[in-house]
Amino acid sequence: RREPLALINLKKKNEETGEEELASRLNHCKAKATRHIFLIRHSQYNLDGRADKDRTLTPLGREQAELTGHRLASLGLKFDQIIYSSMTRATETTEIISKHLPDNTDLLREGAPIEPDPPVSHWKPEAVQYYEDGARIEAAFRNFIHRADAKQEEDSYEIFVCHANVIRYIVCRALQFPPEGWLRMSLNNGSITHLVIRPNGRVALRTLGDTGFMPPDKITRT
């Protein structure tokens, strides 16, 4: 819903000529900047924790977050914002990556976005979970993954710290792939996925689950 034609009122006419100044108004609504979205999967965490507050990062997970933070810093980019999931493992990962956190959100919490195709035998959530989580994760996609606002003059670089299921679903939706295929991708802990959204709405995937900056003995996929 960010096509320029969808942002103007076609019924509104120029009072003097009675004609629509369509070209001028369309140009005013066109995006000018490119958005760079860095989707970071949280680091390794304690799988034995019963409640979310108990699922804290492991010592290795903290090392992974440090490595990810160093990698992001080495890119030499000025990041405009860091948005992170409200779950403990994502919050702790973000705290290590950056000390200045503008915002966090429940939309990016982990969940079951859509029933995978083909199905897997080791993970079968109740059907109701897909309805609950799927609507929320789809809302996250629509809220965060879109072309730049027409008022944005310069390219932006944004970090989102969240979860593997959320990232995989967002990648499928952004690239217009069948979203049911989200579970066919695998993401390492602390990995970086880089999406580019051009002013014309086209999306490119620069990297998917990159952990090439980590030593092999620090890489996990829990």
TrEMBL record:
SMART domains: PGAM
Pfam families named among the record's database cross-references: His_Phos_1 (PF00300)
SUPFAM superfamilies registered for this protein in UniProt: Phosphoglycerate mutase-like
Catalysed reaction equations from the record: O-phospho-L-threonyl-[protein] + H2O = L-threonyl-[protein] + phosphate; O-phospho-L-seryl-[protein] + H2O = L-seryl-[protein] + phosphate
Main location: mitochondrion
Any one of the GO CC terms: mitochondrial outer membrane
Listed GO biological process terms: positive regulation of mitochondrial fission; programmed cell death
Entries under InterPro entries matching the protein: His_Pase_superF_clade-1, His_PPase_superfam, Mito_Ser/Thr_phosphatase
Subcellular location: Mitochondrion outer membrane
Top-level lineage group: Eukaryota
Keywords of the record: Hydrolase, Membrane, Mitochondrion, Mitochondrion outer membrane, Necrosis
EC number: 3.1.3.16
Transmembrane segments: none
Single GO molecular function: protein serine/threonine phosphatase activity
PANTHER family: PHOSPHOGLYCERATE MUTASE-RELATED, SERINE_THREONINE-PROTEIN PHOSPHATASE PGAM5, MITOCHONDRIAL
Similarity comment: Belongs to the phosphoglycerate mutase family. BPG-dependent PGAM subfamily.
UniProt-recorded name of the protein: Serine/threonine-protein phosphatase PGAM5, mitochondrial
Species annotation: Steatornis caripensis (Oilbird)
